[in-house]
Amino acid sequence: MRLPYRLARPLVAAAAVLVAAVGGASAVTAGNLVHPNTGSRISPPAIGVAGQLRICSDIVSPPLEYYSAGHVPTGSDVQIGNAIAGRLKLKAIWLETQFSGIIPALLAGHCDVIISQLFIKPARERVVNFLPYMYSGESIVVKHGNPDHITGLNDSLCGKTVATTIGTTAGLDITTQSASCTQAGKQPIRPLLYQDDIQALEQLALGRAQAYATTTETAAYYMGKAAGTYEFAGHPFGRILTGIAMRKGDPVLLHAMTAAFDALKHSGRYNVIMSRWGLHFDELQYGVSGTA
Q: How far apart are alpha carbons 286 and 9 in whole angstroms?
C-alpha cells in the first residue's frame, strides 16, 4: 500500500553537477566534478532541478523544523539545510512531507535529501545513505504533577493511553512496551496515533491520553512554551545518531553534502545553530561524517 505524503511541487527531471571542497566553496557547474576527499573525477549526481537542493521534511517538529508565523520554514534543521545548500551554491527548497511517507518520497525522486530528524537505523540504512548531523533522544511527557505516576518507558504505562505520531521511533517503542505489558499479564498500552506532534500533545492536554511520547527535543520545546503545564516522566532514553538521508547509488551527492557539512562544523556555524535552538547537548563531535 502506498504511504501518504504531501509534496509542494511535482518532480522535474534535470541534472546538476556539484563540486565540493572540504574546507571551501562548492559550486554548480558543467563537468569537472571532483571527489571532495581524493580529488579524483567522478560522475555527476542527478538532482531534481538544476541549482536547487530539494529537501523533504515533516515541518511540524519544533525546534528542528516548523513554520514561523509567516508560514516560512524555520528551526535548527532548516538552518542547517539552508547552510549546507548555500555552501554547495544551491537554493534550498523545502517540501512538506508527512513523516510516514518521507522515505518513499525520497526514493520516488520527489526530493534530493531528507532533513527531518530521521534516526539512523539498520533497516533505513539498507535503503538510503545517511550523513549523521546530530544526536536525538526520546521522552515520555505527562501533565505537571504526574497524576498517573508514570515513570518512563516501562510497566507504568501498562493500561494507559499514550499519544504519539505515526511512523516514528516513539510509536514503535510504545508498541514494543505494550507487548511487554501483555507478556507480563498486564493491560496493553492504548495508543493514539496522529500525523503531527501538535495533535498528539493536544490529547494529553485534553485528558484523552495520560502520556505523550516524542523526541526529547520536541518535548522540551513544547514544555518551554507552556511552563508548568507538562513534565518529563523519568529520564530521556534511546539516544541515537540522526542523519540527512539520500538515495543509494548517488555517492557524489553524499560526498558533496558531507564536505559541506564538515566545513559547516569547522567554521563554527554548526555550533552556533545548535546552541541557538538549545540543542548543544545533541551536537556531533568533529570527525563524524557520512556513511557509504
A: 36
How many CA atoms does the CB half-sphere of 113 hold within 13 Å? Answer: 33
User: Distance between CA atoms of 279 and 125, rounded to whole angstroms?
Assistant: 25
Which residues is 190 bridged to in the sheet?
A: 161
Q: What percent of the chain has pLDDT over 90?
A: 70
Give residue-wise pLDDT tens across range 28-44: 332 333 444 555 544 44
The domain boundary, picked from 206, 222, 238, lies at 238
Measured CA to CA, the distance from residue 205 to residue 185 in angstroms comes to 29
User: Domain range spanning residue 86?
Assistant: 17-134+243-282
Q: pLDDT digit string (tens) for 158-184? A: 999 999 999 899 999 999 999 999 999
Give the Cα separation of 209 and 196 in Å (integer): 15
Judge if 22 and 141 occupy the same domain: no
Instruction: Calculate the CA 10 to chain-centre distance.
Output: 22
Q: Please indicate, yes or no, if residue 187 is contained in any of the structural domains.
A: yes
Packing angle of the helix pair 76-87, 251-267 (nearest 10 deg):
110
The whole-number pLDDT of residue 12 equals 25
Rounded mean pLDDT of 230-249?
94
Cα 129 off chain centre by: 14
